[in-house]
Specification:
mainly beta; 2 helices; about 140 residues; 2 domains; 3-stranded antiparallel sheet
Length: about 140
């Protein structure tokens, strides 16, 4: 858990604080503005119970735990993820760019723990997003 990270469910929606509650921001994402009646954690997922709109699950809030001044000082940041095994399916990686990079020079390389390249993706081919902010 990230020190200082707090969640609040209120009559008017979901809020988040990164500084022990000194400053709060609305955190609706795709959640309708409805009264929040309960919040819970399951592994790294935030589960929200609402009044009249059922449940809402925000899958893997790990990147929110990793936000820091160190990350903000970098031009590129790759968020830590849970261990990933090659199974033939897809994988989700989260990363952050301070500014959108040049698509003709941006690559993403997937490596074994010993540094062997498994796969290389290029932004120019549209294999991943290269927008400023969290991707």
């Amino acid at each position: 858990m990230r020190p200082g990270l707090l969640w609040a469910g209120t009559e008017s929606g979901l809020y988040i604080s990164f500084d022990d509650g000194e400053y709060w921001s609305q955190f609706q994402q795709n959640l309708p503005i409805v009264p929040i009646t309960d919040l819970d954690w399951k592994e790294n997922d935030l589960i929200v119970a609402t009044q009249g709109r059922s449940f809402w699950v925000m899958d893997d809030v790990t990147p929110l735990h990793q936000l820091s001044d160190t990350m903000a000082s970098k031009s590129v940041w790759l968020y830590d993820s849970a261990p990933i095994w090659r199974t033939g399916g897809s994988v989700s990686l989260r990363y952050w760019f301070r500014e959108a990079p040049d698509s003709s020079t941006t690559e993403l390389r997937i490596l074994e723990s010993d540094g062997t390249i498994i796969k290389t993706f290029t932004a120019e081919d549209g294999a991943f997003d290269i927008e400023a902010g969290m991707n």
